[in-house]
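Good morning C.,

I know you're traveling, so I'll keep this short. The sequence:
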Amino acid sequence: MEHKSHRIRIANIPEGKMMYSLTDRVKGIIICFCILAVLALIHKEYVLLGINLLATLYFTLRSAKILIRGYDSFLVVTDRDNDQYGDILYNSEINYWEYRIKSNSNQVMFYLSDGEKYLLDHDVVISLHDYLSKTMPDKEINLKDFFLYIN
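The tokens, ready to paste straight into the viewer:
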């Protein structure tokens, strides 16, 4: 879903305090790699394996892409096809937001002040809900409020 009015180059993100970021790397796998590397380095016969695991971990972390950036007054969602661009949503433009838990993936629907809707349906995790709850707690709607909003 493309929103030209909200399109921005990632290099041109305005100044602000970053409060949240979501990368394409899974923290659990990174922690397992770290533990395995340390255990391998402890045992003399597995030192080369430990060095190899640390090198793999380094290059994995180095190539991590930030998918969602949350600032104090706006949110930037990186384009999945072209990571040089993204969509910027200012908190002042968002009338309401709704976190939807689905069986296959979670979603966040933003209802913007110009009547437009912005659906974020990829890479949505519960930590994004926590960020939105901190920055815009009064704008979250639940199912009961939703029916009042659309009528």
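Safe travels,
E.
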